[in-house]
């Protein structure tokens, strides 16, 4: 059985993951409206990934016979000053989530909840990758300095043709991965 304090915080994290998914949809819609299809596709994919992270957490709680609370989320930020703002917001969000995930792993360790601590290990690794990816994208967007097509070229070159990107070590998502 998962530690009570861990379960409470993991349920909170589910809300953060769903909110992150919604924010990435808002980012994608902004780029779609600006006719920047690769930036839009990048953030649509990120939205699905964040949704799946929430569903992995749901599956874990179900498997641990713990209560699952599916929360409502606040509306995402949807108005952006320029093409840099959504990526800067995404980096802030990923750094915040990294801190939240580390705190969850710490709670599991403090509580002697070794199964929950092990579950969090994949998310710790994932957050390193997420922060690195968004940091690199932010640098490119900032350097593009008013030339969004350079960003589109970067995404086509660096993020195109990577297959489905499925990680065989990822936890199972409730309802199956989408």
Compact overview of the structure:
The chain is 71% helix and 0% strand. It has 178 residues and is mainly alpha-helical.
Can you walk through the features of this model?
With 178 residues, the protein is mostly helical. The protein has one domain: Ferritin, core subunit, four-helix bundle (Ferritin). The chain is 71% helix and 0% strand. It contains five helices and no strands. The chain has helices at residues 4-33, 37-63, 84-110, 114-144, 148-159.
List the helices and strands and how they pair.
Layout: H1 4-33, H2 37-63, H3 84-110, H4 114-144, H5 148-159
Helix pairs in contact: 1-2, 1-3, 2-5, 3-4, 4-5
Give the biggest sheet: none
Shape: elongated
CATH architecture: Up-down Bundle
Helix-strand pattern = HHHHH
**Mean pLDDT metric:** 93
Treating each run of at least 4 consecutive H or I residues as one helix, how many helices? 5
Low-confidence stretches: none
| Percent helix range | over 70%
- What is the CA-based Rg, rounded? 17 Å
What is the oligomer described by this structure? Answer: single chain
Beta strand %: under 5%
What labels describe this entry?
Ferritin, elongated, 178 residues, mainly alpha, 71% helix, single chain
């Amino acid at each position: 059985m998962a530690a009570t304090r861990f379960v409470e915080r993991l349920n909170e994290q589910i809300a953060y993951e769903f909110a992150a998914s919604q924010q990435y949809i808002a980012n994608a819609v902004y780029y779609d409206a600006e006719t920047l299809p690769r930036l839009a596709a990048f953030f649509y994919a990120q939205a699905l990934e964040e949704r799946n992270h929430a569903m992995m957490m749901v599956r874990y709680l179900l498997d641990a016979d713990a209560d699952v609370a599916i929360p409502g989320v606040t509306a995402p930020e949807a108005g952006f000053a320029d093409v840099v703002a959504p990526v800067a917001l995404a980096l802030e969000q990923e750094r915040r989530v990294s801190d939240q995930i580390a705190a969850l792993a710490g709670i599991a360790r403090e509580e002697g909840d070794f199964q929950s601590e092990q579950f969090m290990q994949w998310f710790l690794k994932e957050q390193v990758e997420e922060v690195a990816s968004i940091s690199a994208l932010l640098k490119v967007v900032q350097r593009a300095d008013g030339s969004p097509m350079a960003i589109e070229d970067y995404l086509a070159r660096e993020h195109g043709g990577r297959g489905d990107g499925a990680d065989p070590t990822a936890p199972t998502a409730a309802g199956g991965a989408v």
